[in-house]
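EI: anyone free to look at a 175-residue chain?
SC: sure, send it
EI:
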Amino acid sequence: MRYAALREQQKIARYDGDTKKIDKIEKRIDSIEHTAVKLGYKLLRDKKNRRIGIGQIKPNITALVQYQFSGEKLYRVLSGMAHSNYTTLKSLAFTKPAYKNGNGAVIQRAVPPARQLSLLSVVGKIYAKCLWLKTIQFGFDAFNMAILLEEFYDTLRIDDTNENRFWRTIIKKIS
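SC: here you go
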């Protein structure tokens, strides 16, 4: 991550034409890489022997979201919204009206309720996981938190399974 940040600083310095700063950043990158090699990490180079990272390749944000929350699909949907992707916006913010227009396709601005509930459920699950981890980490009352999460999941109509309601298995171990 430090390498990625320094590379971004280097790009700005290059844009500004600041050769002294570019050299200073390059020396810092070399120093970090030297330390990483001394710690046992291998050099990361591409086919043309250009540096592509230090220590290990930084995973992209999509991979991190999938690894931590199994939420790649949600991330892609939210990213599509944030970047005004036509297909994403059309599927999340518009519906086909009940009537048909003979002059072409017509859509109306309205959030499809099923899609809205689906998104809320996924976001709710991620929120619940973060809240649960914080509860465990700081030693808060897990039993009361489990009750609140049950009510929260019921409100969002999330399936009543132990897989979805992950705190149940932990509560059983505690009691």
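EI: The two ends are 41 Å apart (CA to CA).
SC: 👍
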